[in-house]
């Protein structure tokens, strides 16, 4: 029974240990000291050798790395990091450090590959390196689709990890808008609006593009309230006043925008600010006129109201290009109006316009009436006053090409200038140059311009007919027949009085 009693077992074990301890030859113990020391040394060495990168070995390597980097001894730094990576090959910080060392040794491509690998593991320092070295300083249009995807991942990671990094957040918003990911862009823009209140209007514009009209109004209204609060603290700040007016125009509160700008003009600090606000006031009036024109009514009173507003706009901002263009459009479109009030306001509008636009109106009117001599006279005067106006130059080119003794070379130079002076030339500009080249017998060059005129519905059929003639001249009968067939299909929708080449003025009137 004693063999199964735990207390008996403990007593036996205790007796064994006591007897073993008493049996040790303590007098000879000093002889074992070297063996004990050797065992401790061997144990310590084995622990260091097989500990996997902790302890003094890593501290020694880190110290060597710091010294080599301080001395810019990059080859030594590379050797040290490689040793560290042998022990911990998946350490993202070590890989990032190695990439930086390789970059310092002019191995940029290898560094780029390593940073991209780290990006897949959502390593923030690698993303910031790619932003600084591969993205900043380039336009989004410079990147391929694959590179754009990488740009998006870099900016998204930085924006998520560093909420206070406004520069990266702005770039991310720009990227999302460029990629037409408007739903994703709106929250980012709204975050920016907390520190940049006018971003609220940008978010509103994006929401409107998505047909989210209620959200657009909400964002614009919130932005307007914030900017108004800023204006209370700085009532003479012209930029804040401009921001208020833009919000009001977006919300279709045009009268409020006009009053805001007029009040700011009165307290403008410098002549430059006054000119800027005056130009903005002209734009606001043009926006109001455009808004009014959306109304289905087209009564004499409504047209009279529009002309009266434009008369005010041209007096306020005579050099505003939007005002000038709209004045010309409305005066030319009302030339056939017999109403006495409209005729009076129209005459006042022409006389009150800058000399350049007055000559443009008179010259284009003469061109529409086929008075080519008078058209050339006034359009040349207009071009002298407004030498960078594409519409004026285009119509002058038409007049030069259609007169009794055509000046084709000069007309071609003027048509080229019209296209070069506008960011996005209209199809009418290309149609004009195409006709000039056609008349000069330069059919191959004319084809390119006439094809670019096809998107305009009012130019389509005549451009098809001229293209058919051009392809006949260059010996491509199949394409020539294709364009004739296309013109025939358009005949009922867009009747024509002949197949002779024609020119169009910028307001859309035809000149045979």
Automatic annotation (TrEMBL):
Residues 481-494, 501-512 have a biased composition (Basic and acidic residues). InterPro entries: CellSynth/LPSAsmb/PSIAsmb, TPR-like_helical_dom_sf. Keywords: Membrane, Repeat, TPR repeat, Transmembrane, Transmembrane helix. Gene3D superfamilies: Tetratricopeptide repeat domain. The chain crosses the membrane at residues 32-56. It comes from the Bacteria. The keyword Membrane applies. This is Tetratricopeptide repeat protein. Residues 481-512 are annotated as: Disordered. Coiled coil: none annotated. It holds the Pfam family TPR_16.
């Amino acid at each position: 029974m004693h063999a199964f009693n735990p207390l008996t077992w403990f007593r036996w074990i205790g007796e064994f240990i006591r007897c073993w301890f008493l049996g040790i030859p303590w007098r000879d113990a000093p002889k074992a000291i070297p063996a004990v020391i050797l065992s401790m040394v061997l144990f310590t060495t084995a622990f260091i050798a097989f500990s996997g990168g902790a302890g003094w070995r890593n501290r020694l390597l880190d110290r060597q790395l710091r010294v080599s980097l301080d001395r810019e001894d990059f080859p030594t730094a590379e050797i040290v990091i490689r040793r560290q990576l042998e022990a911990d090959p998946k350490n993202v910080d070590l890989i990032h450090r190695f990439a930086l060392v390789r970059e310092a040794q002019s191995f940029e491509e290898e560094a780029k590959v390593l940073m991209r690998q780290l990006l897949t593991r959502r390593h923030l320092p690698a993303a910031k390196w790619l932003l600084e070295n591969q993205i900043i300083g380039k336009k989004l249009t410079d990147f391929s689709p694959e590179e754009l995807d990488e740009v998006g991942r870099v900016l998204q990671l930085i924006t998520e990890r560093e909420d206070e990094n406004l520069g990266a957040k702005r770039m991310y918003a720009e990227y999302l808008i460029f990629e037409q990911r408007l739903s994703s862009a709106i929250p980012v823009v709204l975050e920016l609006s907390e520190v940049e209140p006018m971003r609220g209007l940008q978010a509103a514009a994006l929401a409107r593009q998505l047909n989210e009209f209620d959200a657009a109004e909400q964002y614009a209204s919130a932005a307007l309230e914030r900017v108004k609060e800023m204006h209370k603290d700085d009532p003479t700040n012209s930029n804040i006043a401009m921001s208020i007016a833009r919000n009001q125009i977006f919300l279709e509160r045009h009268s409020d925008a006009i009053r805001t700008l007029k009040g700011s003009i009165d307290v403008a600090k410098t002549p430059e600010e006054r000119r800027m606000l005056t130009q903005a006031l002209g734009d606001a009036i043009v926006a109001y006129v455009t808004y009014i024109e959306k109304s289905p009514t087209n009564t004499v009173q409504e047209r009279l109201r529009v002309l009266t507003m434009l008369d005010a706009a041209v007096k306020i901002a005579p050099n505003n290009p939007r005002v000038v263009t709209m004045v010309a459009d409305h005066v030319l479109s009302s030339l056939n109006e017999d109403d006495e009030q409209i005729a009076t306001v129209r005459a006042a509008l022409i006389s009150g316009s800058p000399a350049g636009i007055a000559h443009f109106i008179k010259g284009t009117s003469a061109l529409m009436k086929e008075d080519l001599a008078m058209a050339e006279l006034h359009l040349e005067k207009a071009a002298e006053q407004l030498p960078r106006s594409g519409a004026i130059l285009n119509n002058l080119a038409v007049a030069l090409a259609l007169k009794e003794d055509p000046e084709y070379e000069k007309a071609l130079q003027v048509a080229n200038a019209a296209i070069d002076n506008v960011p996005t030339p209209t199809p009418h500009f290309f149609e004009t140059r195409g006709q000039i080249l056609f008349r000069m017998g330069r059919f191959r060059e004319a084809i390119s311009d006439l094809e670019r005129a096809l998107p305009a519905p009012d130019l389509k059929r005549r451009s098809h007919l001229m293209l058919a003639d051009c392809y006949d001249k260059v010996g491509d009968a199949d394409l020539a027949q294709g364009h004739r067939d296309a013109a025939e299909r358009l005949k009922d929708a867009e009747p024509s009085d002949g197949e002779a080449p024609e020119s169009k003025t910028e307001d859309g009137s035809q000149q045979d």
